[in-house]
Amino acid sequence: MLYQSTRGGSPAVSSARAIVDGLAPDGGLYTMAPGEIPKLDWRALMDLDYPSLAAKLLSALLPDFGEGEAKELVEAAYRGKFSDARIAPLHDAGGELFLELFHGPTSAFKDVALCLLPYLMKRAASKCGDTGDILILTATSGDTGKAALEGFRDVPGIRILVFYPRDGVSPVQKAQMVTQAGGNVKVCAVEGNFDDAQTGVKAVFSAMPEGLSSANSINIGRLVPQVVYYFSAYFDAVRTGKIRPGDALNFAVPTGNFGDILAGWLAGEMGLPVGKLICASNANNVLTDFIKTGVYDRRRPFHKTLSPSMDILISSNLERLLYLMSGDSALVASLMDKLRTEGHYQIPAALLQKIQDRFVGTCCDDAQTKAAIADVWEKRGYLCDTHTAVARRAASLFGTENGPVVILSTASPYKFPAAVLSAIGVPCGLDEFGMMDALEEYTKVPLPENLRGLRERPVRHRDTVAPADMLEYVRAQKEKSTWA
Ligand SMILES: *Cc1c(COP(=O)(O)O)cnc(C)c1O
Q1: Architecture of domain 90-104+221-443
Q2: Ligand 1 proximal residues by C-beta, below 6 Å
Q3: Distances in Å between the alpha carbon of 395 and those of 99, 204, 251?
Q4: Span 53-68, pLDDT tens digits
């Protein structure tokens, strides 16, 4: 099984090469060929522990990695990193099901993939015979950056440079990044929003692809580890009697770059009885409109919301879905070109029908996000973050007539303490760090250890660039023999 570019303009490559390179030379995303998504007998996987399950799925999707090898990498990647040994526990909050993905080292779901990606990348580079150093370039809407920095910190032969939108991340997210330690890490603010940062990173890739890779979900090595928790959640739902084996299980996914929800779709294509995938957006509701109408139109105001990791108007991974569902790379190339030049495109009716068969799109504003946090807290005694709340609101609108819905819980509420405190009606005039303590005192939900003492950590990164200067900046940093 080789990986193709979604735009059909560059040769197919091995799964190892796809991970090392991150993005295809023609600007497309590496994806298995349509019709080559491996099918598995999920019933045979039900009793596996998380690393064994992950190893089965990884070796099926990334054929350069044997199952034994995958298991060894998964175990090394997750060992001692998660505060919950189950990695992705399914939490039953009075009948509402939350798939908790935030027990990793940076308290966001990105950890599940980004703990593992460095291990996959090192091994993939050695399989490809690449001996040079790798520079990881990453644009972040807030959570990827920190998770990638932690994952790649002090990994020999790899350096990582993270770009974040200067005014687009929460104070906690910013503090997590600019205090990052490690001899091979760099963090730089971009004068713009996430789309500017992501577009800038893609432009650097086009201009100087040699020796660069990506830790964004445009890298297939980011996506594959996320397939695993859809399986584990399904099995947990069976084990706890929420569904019978074979019943469809729906998932509500707070969506930004469309990576997480695409992993859920892949799980379904691999044979898992996935019901509807509920694509939950905040006020940046480009995907909601797209799923309803087949028109993708980013010509709209960019909203800064309480769920900043989903403040995105160009959802990169949608390109993979369009390719896998249509099998038509020429179509995808022309749509992506139209998006770039005109800011919008429309898909054919038959393709829209296929999307609507599997996906439902819903959006909500900040007031509804806060109302969802308050509702879960008051009714269930369960504290959720702003992103999770967007998905919870979508799940409530969807209802349970079509079976239970698993809500993907993608961040700890402590990453967004101001919004969460105000949602549950605790006014306070403290800064975000004081609010973390206030939130813990009031709710008694324990503050994750990695966020404790954040305020006191020294700031190590102060660089800022304009989007137009990103290429120059990367060139200059790449030239330096050491960042330490
Ligand atoms: C990144 C992120 C999302 C969105 O995930 P995508 O894979 O980009 O769709 C949702 N919630 C949180 C907390 C995130 O960090």
Answers
A1: 3-Layer(aba) Sandwich (3.40)
A2: 108-110, 143, 217, 254-260, 309-310, 387, 410-411
A3: 13, 38, 8
A4: 999 999 999 999 999 9
